[in-house]
Amino acid sequence: MGRGKGGKSRTQRKHFQQNRENVWNQHRPESLPSTTNPYDIQNPDFDHYYKEQNIVSLEEWDSFMQVLRTPLPAAFRINSSSLFHADIRSQLENDFARALQAIVLEGDEEDAIRPLPWYPENLAWHSNFSRMQLRKNQSLKRFHEFLKLENEIGNITRQEAVSMVPPLFLDVHSNHIVLDMCAAPGSKTFQLLEILHRSTKAGSLPDGMVIANDLDVQRCNLLIHQIKRMCTANLIVTNHEAQHFPGCHLNLDCDIRGSSQHASQLLFDRVLCDVPCSGDGTLRKAPDLWRRWNTGTGNGLHTLQILVAMQGLSLLKVGGRMVYSTCSMNPIENEAVVAEILRRCKGSVELVDVSSELPQLIRRPGLKRWKVRDKGKSLVSCKEVDKVRRSAVLPSMFPNGGNYRDIDCNSNCDVNGHPEDGVQVEENPAMHEFTEIVSDFPLELCMRLLPHDQNSGAFFIAVLQKNSPLPAIEVKRRKEVNNQHVESVNQGSEDAQVLQIYPSESTHEEVCKQVSDDNKNEPNEPNTADFKFSPVIDEEGESEEAQEPHNEENIAKITPSKRKLQIQGKWRGVDPVIFFKDESIIKSIEAFYGIDEQFPLDGHLVTRNSDTSNVKRIYYISKSVKNVLELNLSVGQHLKITSVGLKIFERQKSREGRSVECAFRIASEGLPLILPHITKQILSASAIDFKHLLQYKNVKFAEFVDAKFGEMVANLKPGCCVIVLGEGNKVSAEALQVDESSIAIGCWKGRASLTVMVTSIECQELLERLLMRLDRETEKGSSMHEDKPSNNVRYVEQESNGNSQDVEAI
Ligand SMILES: C[S@@+](CC[C@H](N)C(=O)[O-])C[C@H]1O[C@@H](n2cnc3c(N)ncnc32)[C@H](O)[C@@H]1O
Fold first, then answer.
1. Does the annotation flag 188 for ligand binding?
2. Basic and acidic residues: which segments have biased composition (predicted)?
């Protein structure tokens, strides 16, 4: 605990006392992050700017600022696709809600934790504790541990409450093709995928898909790591500048080559445009922003935000919906961007009135008027901008837009660009008549979420609908966009010319870092070292336990000369995406696991290794992903794909040296998808035997409590098999009645025992969930519960001293 971290100043204590989170009053010295200097939790420029923008009334200003200066309460979502989402919700409602309330000081009106009222099905939760409190306060330890574990497993996602809102306004259906333009670290991508999968049955996939794009490779890896926690084959992760995201337009030459059966262009039903922004809506979470805050940041991002949004609209189908969002409160990044795209789209795009959706979400209408601040001056119209500042202060930043060319034509300026007639540049910003310029667009349909309305961060959201193809847009003269090179690109059949502006530093076709085969798909691959008793080794004969974690540094360090630079079409340094078509392997997998016809492998498997004879991992892709990959191949691989599909098979070899009939085991990521389609190598275990497997990881056939089950395990073919929690003595998937709620684990059938092939943390989670269920059954009078292992179960971990080689005997 941080009590001894030195005395805090009186001001700090005062800020602390103002903190609405009463629980923290018990532990005052820990209330503020130790790195935060209270003097930094303010910024006169910020005050001046936002007072002038009228984002809240003057009467509200103090309460707005007070909340903005307090740490953000932690919020999280239960992942609806998780097997245990109902258990977790009930644990929160019945266990934690009561236990935590007891910790909160008397008189605190706020609940310790509560579901966010506007989020469907009580799946999103607000806690009245900041992340710092959760980390430091001993009485919150159990809750904190719970959040950490469930987050890691993928049952919950920690996410700012307001950041959960944009996907909810996108109106995603299961058959939609969705583009998430600036997606990393992927919290909203996760939500979009959850919505897509919402009503799909076990073993099937939705018709739609998501392409999640981000410019930053490392952040893409974070996203991949996040999404790995859910079972989806409907995702492609790409790595482009969103403003240049390829439309994959199939030209005539390609058509002649016989690809006419493909879609001829990549168009989306839904686009999420959650652009990079100055982020002052996250001040409560990142108080260091107070110090760094300035108006230049927002002004500097304005053009990029317009370009990304325009590209999103050009890739949107007519009739489609796009959500534009930022975690900034600044009108230059928000209303000004929306107004400019409406201006450029000339009626083909409109703002959607979503005021009746999510009625419990407190929101404020978008602003119709605002000021632009540059070099200490507040400006209401682009006519006031000094010529020398025109490259930084653009007409599109102002409520009425405008155009410097027209100003130049219509007014006589002196040589320095100062107006000689017309508008006078005012020195005192307070002197402006703020009512002077009002946007013509219905910007009140946008929404701003403010911190003091529902004790959250801040966010801006605009919902747009495309009603007709975008119009031809006049290419602006280069001199208007300083440091940017402008070019007009035909975006395809649907839209006319769309303005494209490339930032001068743009190098999106450059070689990026070399990454390993599969590494990009698995940035933080759980090493099978986790399988303490792993009886399998990879096809190179190298124990996976011996491998260092997969990351670019390690790969470069370990095998500097071994790795060839991978090439994916024109993208160098990126693993290729190859359709896996080796018939003999596919047939052997289908035969070994008895995979039924409703789960076609043919055409749905890809690898990331150009050496197809040496494939280690095979990924499953949905039909929609397959279509996009085929289009991408037809156009010459415009997409730079970082990750695609769901890992479903991994090459294996018995550590015992025995040959196994099938070279590939089922990967735990893909197991829930394929589970209902397996008819061989699958058995159902009683709760007690299932529990023992999770506890001891390795159980001899003769030592299962249910002797019949032990016999059936002994009769399985050597190699990978699947054990489902159930009644026992059931063999086929049909008899097992596998459904969305089935709990299953991948195992390895060795010579004399069965070994679990699930990571330790997953074992721990499954075990805890199972014990909870058993406890509930015991309360109801069931006899299945048994705390201690039966005498005949060997506790391998103790006996073998944790050495997985001991399992050779199995
Ligand atoms: C606000 S964050 C996105 C958060 C994300 N939507 C989520 O919910 O987790 C903005 C993202 O834009 C990315 N970015 C910045 N410039 C970009 C560009 N030109 N094209 C695409 N992505 C960009 C950043 O790397 C960052 O991950």
1. yes
2. 778-789
